[in-house]
Every structure is written in C-alpha cells, then in structure tokens.
Design brief:
This protein has 308 residues and is α/β, with parallel strands linked by helices. 50% of the residues lie in helices and 10% in strands. 44% of the residues are buried.
C-alpha cells in the first residue's frame, strides 16, 4: 500500500496481494501503533477492484444485495419475514445471505433477546465495504440505521463491526453482548447425562475489530462444558467472500483448524457469524469430521428446547 501511495507500484500490480489477504484484522490486535489495517485494506480494494479488475462472481454477489428488494427476495420463502412484529428492546438485523442460507439463526436469536424483525430491511453494506465499494457500503449502513429504530441487534460479527464503524458502537449490539447479562436464565445442554462439550470459533471482525470475545465464552460456559479451541482467534478461512473467490487458499487456511477440532472430540463447534457457520459446516463435512456446527443463537435455542 505504501508503494502504491508513493508511486513505486501501480494498483494493477497489487491485485494479487489485495485479494490474497484474508482481511481478518488479526494484525490490528497486536499492532503496537494501533494501525487500523482493516480500514486501509478496504480503501485499497476500493481503489484497485474497479472495472475489469473486479471478479465476476463478486459482481454478482454485490448486485444481489445492492437493493433492499433483492435482499428481501433472499428470504422470500421465510413467511416470518413478512409478519408485522411489535416493538421490542432491539431491532434485529436479519442479514442478507443469512436469511437465505440460515433463516433459523434470526428466529433462534429472538428466543432469549426481545427483538423485533422487519422483513423489509436491506443489506448493511459490509459485503460492499469489504469488497471494493467502501462508500456504497457506508451509505447502505446509514440507510439500514434509519430503517431500524433504536438499538440494533445482529447475529453476524462482520456486520456488527461494519455497522458499529458507521453508526457507532452505542447503537449496535452483537447477539452475545445482549445475552451475556442474562446467562443466569440459561440452562445447560445435556448429552447422555453430561454437559455438551463445545468450543467456539471467533468471528475475526468481532474479535479484532470490536474486541468482543469474552461474551460468547461466558454464555457457552453457562450452558455447556466449554473447551478453548487452540486457534479460536485464527481465521477459519471464510473471510467474507474469500472462501468463494479463493477456495484453494481458504481450504489451506482451514487445514490446521480441522486438526484442532478433531483432536478435541467435541459435540459442537459454535460460531458467531453466518459465514463462519457455512465454512465450518462445509469443511468439516468434506473431511468427515462429525462435530456438529451451530451458531451461538441456535445453541442457546437448543438449550431452551431441551429444558422446556
């Protein structure tokens, strides 16, 4: 980035480097100078990933969620998205691809955190901001902020970090934050008379961008036999669109994590981000590792159903 800034390299010469980076922001957590590398990467990609330099698959993904009506179409078969809901403590952000791929996550989130969910909301813009359309991503976040009243609850770490950066941390709450103060109300998930053995895969943007990592662990420790995954803070290789645009590299990133998960002999591996959920499910299935994958909201809902 410095070489581009001073004219030693052109943007076209740095395309490979700009896409090879996961954008996990782990460097921010250890940088003594506090450099916000995630922001720099977004600005770099916004300059470099234009015109013919933008991947065709990425163009399709961005187009799919660029307008609220397209996002609503992703959840067209989930009738709950069209029901009028009464005002609550939080306004639940349904997510764009989450409502199509994992519609049960938002439903599960509402079982323990009072939140209304409006089906006519659009994308928060995180996908755009991370993939070469930073300014459009900011506009989409502001539009969503105007549509959702009061405190916004999200079940996606990446979305939480983006919304908090644009709207402010005082308006945006990730699911585990809202639930962490209610852990005394939760009951354990039991399997064969023992607490379920679980580990957590951190969301990179949640941990390194917002420094939120204790809250989901507090929730899990209350309802399960929590085991710390050695590389929990390391990226799983999902990294937003990375697993789609650089599938081979994503597989290599996950290889070490697969061995760590298999070694722990877990009942469940828990995520706090839908992209991570998809990556974990896909990669573990591919390697025939039987550990079940659930989003934190789904695991808490399972606790509720088993203790009803």
């Amino acid at each position: 980035m410095r070489a581009v800034q001073i004219g030693e390299l052109s943007l076209d010469q740095t395309l490979a480097q700009s896409s090879f980076c996961l954008g996990c922001r782990a460097c921010e957590s250890v940088c003594p100078a506090g450099v916000e590398y995630g922001t720099l990467l977004e600005e770099w990609r916004s300059a470099a990933w234009q015109g013919s330099n933008r991947n065709l698959i990425l163009k399709v993904l961005l187009f799919a969620v660029n307008q609220p009506w397209r996002v609503r179409f992703l959840g067209a078969f989930n009738l709950r998205n069209f029901k009028k809901q009464e005002p609550a403590d939080y306004s639940l952000m349904l997510g764009c691809f989450e409502r199509g791929l994992f519609p049960g996550i938002s439903k599960a989130a509402q079982t323990n955190v009072p939140a209304s969910a409006s089906g006519n909301q659009g994308c928060c813009g995180a996908l755009h901001a991370h993939n070469g359309e930073l300014e459009r991503g900011k506009v989409m976040a502001k539009e969503l902020g105007e549509k959702l009243p009061g405190k916004i609850l999200t079940t996606s770490g990446g979305c939480a970090a983006h919304l908090a950066a644009v709207l402010g941390k005082e308006r945006v709450f990730e699911y585990s934050q809202a639930l962490a103060e209610k852990t005394d109300q939760l009951k354990p998930v039991m399997i064969n008379g023992k607490r379920a053995r679980v580990a957590l895969q951190d969301s990179c943007h949640l941990r390194h961008g917002l420094q939120i990592f204790n809250e989901p662990r507090k929730v899990l420790a209350q309802i399960a036999d929590y085991v710390e995954l050695p590389g929990a803070s390391d990226c799983c290789g999902a990294a937003g669109t990375y697993a789609i645009l650089r599938a081979k590299d994503s597989n290599r990133v996950f290889e070490k994590k697969a061995k760590e998960i298999a070694k722990l002999d877990l009942d469940f591996i828990i995520s706090v981000n839908p992209g991570c959920t998809r990556q974990l499910k896909t990669q573990l299935r591919k390697r025939k590792i039987n550990t079940k994958v659930l989003h934190l909201a789904e695991f808490v809902a399972l606790s509720n159903s088993l203790n009803a």
